[in-house]
Amino acid sequence: MVISISVSVISIVAVEIYLRYYWGFCDAVLVQENNKFEYIAQPYQERYRFRKHI
């Protein structure tokens, strides 16, 4: 029982690390308030999502 829980936790952590660093998950674009458009993306950001620069 303890071994299966440990393996599950390690697997979840490994998948989380893989998705964050390889695919760019949780690398959200930072936004700022704007009077005309409500919110716009902040300039000069180096963001990647699905291995593409956005």
Which short descriptors sum up this protein?
single chain, 54 residues, alpha+beta, two-stranded antiparallel ribbon, 4 strands, elongated
How would you concisely characterize the structure shown here?
This protein has 54 residues and is an alpha+beta fold. The protein is 37% helix and 22% strand. It has one domain (2-53).
Output the strand order for the largest sheet. 1-2
Q: Beta-strand percentage?
A: 15-25%
Mean pLDDT: 87
CA-CA gap between termini: 44 Å
List the total number of helices: 1
Molecular structure report:
The protein has 54 residues and is α+β, with helices and mostly antiparallel strands. The protein has one domain (2-53). Helix content is 37%, strand content 22%. The strands form two sheets. It has a two-stranded antiparallel ribbon. It has a two-stranded antiparallel ribbon with strand order 3-4. The model has no long low-confidence stretch (mean pLDDT 87).
